[in-house]
Design a protein that fits this description.
- The complex is a heterodimer of chains A (about 325) and B (about 280).
- Chain A is built from eleven helices and two strands.
- Chain A has about 325 residues and is mainly α.
- Chain A has a domain of about 210 residues: MetI-like (MetI-like fold), CATH 1.10.3720.10.
- In chain A, strands 1-2 form a two-stranded antiparallel sheet.
- In chain A, helix 6 crosses helix 9 and helix 7 packs antiparallel against helix 9.
- Chain B folds into two domains: about 200 residues, Rossmann fold (3-Layer(aba) Sandwich), CATH 3.40.50; about 70 residues, no CATH class.
- In chain B, the strands form two sheets. Chain B has a six-stranded mixed β-sheet with strand order 6-7-8-3-9-10, sandwiched between helices. In chain B, strands 2-1-4-5 form a four-stranded antiparallel β-sheet, with helices on one face.
- Chains A and B meet through helix 8 and helix 9 of A and helix 2 of B.
Chain lengths: ~325, ~280
């Protein structure tokens, strides 16, 4: 092809429309391909579900699960309506009593209905965040200490390597017994089962942050350390001004891994500790064994996955927000 | 001239898995106030080790360094270092990088207003006042090195140590930086030790060039006085016979007396000695 024809071709397609074409193409690639993936998955799922016969009926396909979501939402709304009706009645009653007897101080009793699926999600989120925040408060300082001191690193390494692969199920009985023994107040601030699952989450999700923080701190550019030495920065200033910012990208890598583990561990812990939450929801449905149970469990499975994904994304967003190194937060 | 810095009988021995490795042997050097001294030598000869000992980042195995009558035992801002690859903190702007140093050194002596003025004065000195609030990843390599120099200058060091400050820059930027440095020097008259392996740079900037022999057990081979008049102009000097002579003196030392790389013609039948020189390189 000679130069003239190329020029003609370029003229034939103006730059703007070329750009638009490219945008559409990118859009197609970014939207359509994942959508196609999901579609294929749904087809395979519903085909496979047809083939599986259990004692509780057919394995739920996508349509059943979708219906169950609707059912769960309906239950939630009904429960809310009941609760507000309860408070309404209480208010009326109190108003009447105060009218009869002005000295009466009205007491408002909390509604004690069954927690719905959506309440369970909130409970699970609270538990996982409490466990994760507690773990972060321990693991970041510990990781920095290990990263700064070779001796401490050598001393702690075997301990970390041994406890890192321990399953939450192994920790849980121990945690339960210890919590029962230590946390024996007549009027507990938080229920024991909450503490059990929170501490189990903490124990399991400590390690990735500890390890990544330690690696991040130990691999800080030597020149930056030398800058700090030439300036004679005191130890605390050195940590705040040099060590912490320099290892922020690695700390976040650890935190994201930790949060992922925390969420996975939580579901197992809630099942066993009977702490309200998504894990208990799954367990209760399993014990319940109604014709809806499998569909509702499957709905919970999808919810667990989706919440886990959202947790990871929000961690990424937090990293983009806090970290100076924007390239390390690209994925 | 009063002596500011005295390096006396410094040996440096590094422990290696194959036994002790003597990098430096009997380094003796006195530097006067306001003097600009270059250390030149082949790579791996221990120039940086000398600088690091003066900075206090390394401790000499035997011998020692005395600055203004006090022995050097640890790093400190009175011996500010300009590192080869700028080593600015990437999460801080140019201004904040200098601020960290100024607050650490003058935090108690200067008030807020004075600190701000002093930071801006130093950034202006290196012509970086237009990009004060940019972060290192937003400015060029030469600009980063300027900020690195501003940070070192802002500590008002008694001696300024520069470890191949322009080694990572392209030739044009390097020339520009050298001119800037001469301009700053004419104003501040700092005492400077600069490491370089650029012969022209050494002759252009220095009052004295200290030429080091090859390692292991490297030491000072020759010292060359550069009595060219200041201010120096690189274009005028290019034709100056005195400059050409001094330049060839350094070249002779490096490529005749302390030859490290063999001629290309000798290259083929000489692989064995090359291996040796490479291993000593790695150790140094």
């Amino acid at each position: 092809m000679n130069a003239i024809t190329i020029k003609q071709k370029l003229n034939a397609v103006p730059a703007a429309s070329l750009k638009a074409k490219q945008l559409i193409q990118n859009g197609v690639q970014q939207m359509m391909i994942p959508l196609a993936g999901i579609l294929v998955f749904l087809l395979l799922w519903s085909a496979a579900a047809q083939q599986i016969e259990t004692s509780l009926g057919k394995f739920p396909g996508p349509v059943t699960v979708w219906q169950q979501f609707g059912g769960l939402y309906q239950e939630h709304m009904n429960e809310r309506a009941k609760a507000s009706a309860f408070y309404e009645r209480q208010k009326e009653r109190n108003a009447k009593r105060v009218a009869q007897d002005p000295d009466y101080v009205p007491r408002i009793r909390a509604y004690t209905g069954k927690p719905t699926f959506f309440d369970q999600i909130i409970t699970s989120l609270i538990t996982v965040m409490s466990g994760f925040i507690l773990a972060t408060l321990i693991s970041v300082p510990l990781g920095i200490a290990i990263g700064l001191s070779k001796t401490l690193n050598t001393a702690m390494n075997p301990v970390i390597q041994i406890f890192k692969p321990v399953s939450p199920l192994a920790w849980l009985p121990l945690v339960t017994m210890v919590v029962s023994a230590v946390y024996a107040t007549p009027d507990p601030l938080v229920p024991k089962s909450f503490l059990n699952s929170m501490i189990t989450v903490t124990l399991c999700c400590l390690w990735p942050t500890v390890i990544n923080t330690a690696v991040g701190v130990a691999s800080i550019n030597k020149d930056l350390i030398n800058v700090s030495r030439v300036l004679r920065l005191p130890p605390l200033t050195h940590i705040i001004k040099i060590v912490l910012p320099a290892s922020i990208p690695m700390i976040f890598t650890g935190l994201r891994l930790s949060l992922g583990i925390a969420w996975m561990v939580l579901i197992a812990a809630e099942m066993l500790a009977q702490n309200p939450g998504l894990g208990k929801f799954v367990w209760d449905e399993f014990q319940n064994g109604s014709s809806n149970s499998l569909g509702r469990i499957m709905a919970a499975v999808i919810t667990i996955g989706f919440v886990g994904f959202l947790l990871d994304r929000s961690m990424l967003q937090l990293q983009r927000w806090i970290s100076w190194d924007k390239t390390s937060a690209s994925r | 001239m009063t002596t500011v810095l005295e390096i006396t009988k410094v040996d440096m021995v590094f422990p290696t898995p194959k036994g002790p490795f003597t990098a430096l042997k009997e380094i003796d050097l006195k530097i006067a106030k306001g003097e600009f001294v270059s250390l030149i030598g082949h790579s791996g000869c221990g120039k940086s080790t000398v600088l690091n000992i003066v900075a206090g980042l390394y401790t000499a195995s035997t011998g020692g360094v005395v600055l203004n009558g006090k022995e050097v035992l640890e790093p400190g801002p009175e011996r500010a270092v300009v590192f080869q690859n700028h080593s600015l903190l990437p999460w801080l702007t140019a201004y904040q990088n200098v601020e960290l140093a100024v607050k650490q050194v003058f935090g108690r002596k200067k008030n807020k207003q004075e600190i701000q003025e002093w930071i801006e004065y130093n950034l202006k000195l290196v012509h970086m006042d237009h990009a004060m609030h940019k972060r290192p990843d937003e400015i060029s390599g030469g600009m980063k090195q300027r900020v690195g120099i501003a940070r070192a200058l802002s500590m008002q060091p008694e001696i300024l140590l520069m470890d191949e400050p322009f080694g990572a820059l392209d030739a044009l930027t390097r020339a520009h930086m050298q001119d800037s440095l001469m301009e700053i020097q004419s104003e501040l008259k700092n005492t400077v030790i600069m490491i370089t392996h650029d012969v022209d740079e050494a002759v252009l900037l220095s009052d004295r060039i200290v030429m080091m022999t090859n390692g292991p057990a490297a030491t000072i081979g020759e010292i060359l006085n550069i009595n060219l008049e200041r201010p120096r102009d690189r274009l005028a000097l290019a034709e100056d016979p005195e400059y050409t002579h001094l330049r060839s003196e350094v070249l002779k030392f490096l490529y005749e007396k302390q030859r490290k790389i063999e001629n290309i013609t000798q290259h083929k039948d000489n692989t064995d000695s090359k291996k040796n020189s490479r291993s000593s390189n790695a150790a140094a």
